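Field reference: sequence -> structure
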Amino acid sequence: MNRHTLVGVLVGGIFAIAITAVAVLDAFAAGGLVLLASATAGLAAGVCIGGLIAANFAMLALEATEPKEVAAPAPKPAHATA
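Structure field:
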């Protein structure tokens, strides 16, 4: 696993934890099934957003490794006048 992908998974995991924590803390006072539903919905949303962040970092890693095409300018004919 290269550096970009590892950082993407780490940042995505942090976002997933933060979103889940906010959802759980908002429903903590209600307790019961409301807390369970909020934790489940928060975890699902966090994993989705974290996955998108990780995918962006993975695409960055892929873009960094693919070769760049360099187009050389066409040579001018020797008898060309300017």
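Note: The chain has a mean pLDDT of 81.
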